Amino acid sequence: MEIKNVTVAGGGVLGSQIALQSAYKGFAVTLWLRSEGSIERTRPKLERLRGIYKASLEALKTDPSAFCRGLTDSPDVPPAQLDELIARVDAAFDSLVLTTDVEQAFGGADLVIEAIAEVIAEKEAFYGSIAGALPEHAVLCTNSSTLLPSAMASFTGRPDRFLALHFANNIWKNNTAEVMGTAETSPASYRAVVDFARAIGMIPLELRKEQPGYLLNSMLVPFLNAAEALLANDVADVETIDRAWMLGTGAPLGPFRILDIVGLTTAYNIVAASPAAQEPGSTAARIAAMLKARIDEGKTGVNAGEGFYRYN
Amino acid sequence: MEIKNVTVAGGGVLGSQIALQSAYKGFAVTLWLRSEGSIERTRPKLERLRGIYKASLEALKTDPSAFCRGLTDSPDVPPAQLDELIARVDAAFDSLVLTTDVEQAFGGADLVIEAIAEVIAEKEAFYGSIAGALPEHAVLCTNSSTLLPSAMASFTGRPDRFLALHFANNIWKNNTAEVMGTAETSPASYRAVVDFARAIGMIPLELRKEQPGYLLNSMLVPFLNAAEALLANDVADVETIDRAWMLGTGAPLGPFRILDIVGLTTAYNIVAASPAAQEPGSTAARIAAMLKARIDEGKTGVNAGEGFYRYN
């Protein structure tokens, strides 16, 4: 099946990135938003992304380290071609259609990427509201990080054409896209989404079955939890634990640098939701308390200027 | 306290490396071995290490990537100075005293590093056999990976002067040394061992309390286990899981490359010993079966030429 018209639902951090990236790579993109207020809040995000895309391509003329895997195939692109790509960013930005109209947004969609709030009731209402407008052949993807597609498949009325396409933040740089179907997803829909992910400059990571947390978070969460436990149990300090990981594995970042990027609030929400954290005196409870103390001081990570480390 | 005379007990993989490294950095090193047969088996290991040390220093004359953190402080060393260091390797090798004599090995020791088999009864017999020969001030370290020093402290007769100093394999390159005391270890002994580790070119990683697995393995084991679970549950293939980790965290190696280096037999022993692996149908049991199948085919990792990947 051929995908030309892509509709992204939701203009949050990821929704806006997916929309601009897809348009940049030549797709006709509509961004469906819930209200006029959402449209007004999404425009500056898209403006900001346009600036980042153009600045990254401009920087690549003189600095190979400015290479973003989602923007060009390699760091070696002649300046004239980079100028064409910069013009393409503007054209992509201008081509985006932002609308609250369900018929306009979904009536001609080949592919829908849902990136709305992680609330199951909202997902249900959303999929119910678009079902009547969608063309028969349209494939639906959810970008949900925390809900499994099988929990939403029945809402869509087309479980064979429904799966998860999970992006990382800053998709023009961190261009992985985890592709995960349910037991009902048809192979044709799965392949179409893998191909689409590749077509918009992503590296598709194919999951053969449902897995909460997909691949990356399935490994990252227990790893970060182990590091948090060492700190919460006062086995060593932040710098020593990070150094042990970096020197022992050659990784560029230790767990606490990664936690500062992920954000301490997200890390806290994950551990606080675990059954072990409800037992006073458990390691999980100590981890939660340790993270909460930092969060209460405003040290929530890189974005706040301080987390486990200080940033300028 | 000043450390001059270092005695290493055991001529295995780590014992021989610790002995040569300590001599290379200027300490008077005695290697105590259990029998004449052990001495004969240890000599070729030391010869091989001498060759590696000299070849690495020689290569550094023309190739900065040959830099080994345990051999020189930086990659920028003038050739004449490298020639001096190469001569120092020979001098260090020649200075090593190999003996089975307890009085000769331990009678003048300031520091003992025990690197014998990971069998508690052997540790007990060893510490008991040397107690009478040791000078009062001598500090004892165990390099044990799997036994906690508190489980051995009573064997030594000097629990205040006993702690763990845990090396990584290939210490001239992977120069971390985890320093871990028990509740009884005196601060002075702890500091003396930290200083010694630094003096032989290691980066000491200071643990404030006992932790099974120290720092690195405390993080590595749950991380590798999570990756093994993804494979054993057929969520994705080896290459995809590795790619998810490398692209998502910027790490140079994914979990299955690391497992090939660690060795599948070690990974199998860890998971097979867990209570969960005894339950048929559990993820741990599936992981154990998956590793065992590869081990039975001789695919035990890099050293065998094949593990999860093939090596030439």
Automatic annotation (TrEMBL), chains A, B:
It catalyses: a (3S)-3-hydroxyacyl-CoA + NAD(+) = a 3-oxoacyl-CoA + NADH + H(+). Pathway: Lipid metabolism; butanoate metabolism; Lipid metabolism; fatty acid beta-oxidation. Pfam families: 3HCDH (PF00725), 3HCDH_N (PF02737). Keywords: Fatty acid metabolism, Lipid metabolism, NAD, Oxidoreductase. Residues 213-311 form the 3-hydroxyacyl-CoA dehydrogenase C-terminal domain. Signal peptide: none annotated. Its EC number is 1.1.1.35. Residues 5-209 form the 3-hydroxyacyl-CoA dehydrogenase NAD binding domain. It is an enzyme of class 1 (oxidoreductase). The keyword Metal-binding does not apply. GO terms for molecular function: (3S)-3-hydroxyacyl-CoA dehydrogenase (NAD+) activity. SUPFAM superfamilies: 6-phosphogluconate dehydrogenase C-terminal domain-like, NAD(P)-binding Rossmann-fold domains. The keyword Transit peptide does not apply. PANTHER family: HYDROXYACYL-COENZYME A DEHYDROGENASE, MITOCHONDRIAL, PTHR43561. This is 3-hydroxyacyl-CoA dehydrogenase. It comes from Adlercreutzia faecimuris.
